[in-house]
Amino acid sequence: MKLELILSMLLFSGLASCQPSGTKQNEEKNKENTTEEVSALHADKTFVLPKQLNEISGISFLANDTEHIYAVQDESGIVYSYHLTSEKIVSEYEFAPAGDYEEITNDGSYFYVLRSDGTIFSFPVDLKAAQAKVNVFEGQLGKGEYESMSYDSDKKELYVLCKSCSQDKGKASVSGYTVQVQADGILTLGAPFEINLDAVNQLGGKALKSLKPSAIVKRSATKDWYVLSSVDKLLLILDASLKPKKLIRFDKKQFEQPEGITFDQSDRMFISSEKNKGDNALLFQYTKQP
Question: Which UniProt keywords apply (predicted)?
């Protein structure tokens, strides 16, 4: 009886020891088939920003200028020019009264600043226009909260992405609008678009039930779209037709509150993070791209 018991125990132990190996092989195989990465971003330089930019929410470069990055922040209707070499703010331009400003982009001639209610302000990049001359595009986008906008130089349109819009409730998608850029920075509403979350979830990893974008930018070198989400702690890369390609999740301690993303003409990627609970807002530079 004892011998039979010992043999049974040995057999069970042998089967049990085989199971994790097969499971591990399956996990490794599944990992090979996913395009999700965790903490795949490694900054090669970090800028500690001045107090005026503690709530930095949007960043942009002008073409052929890799020395100055232009930024807006929550609550102030001001565009700040920050010099990367001297690491100082070198100019400030007040384009509008205080408000919840979330994003900045440009087409080389005009800056476009997005307010959280979907209103867009446009003004020449020389930053000399009086406030009365600033163009205001308002009441055209659907009711909701917006933080993401980028200029598409190929189509000469702005892409504005919802953070929280009523039409997205209960749907596995994030909606957005194109806004056509006319002469003198005048804007007209274009066609709607959406990002399909079911397609995003096919990349692997924990499924997303919703997505709260903080910023979007089109990378000129590849024509890909980069969508940053502070709430969801991720960077989503889509192709030119907005089809998901890659998902990068951040470690909780990697950023305090990442709300801005852009590329310069040298194809360096920059991500800005608000101060939140830290000592200062930070700007991260990435020479090697994900």
Answer: Cell membrane, Membrane, Signal
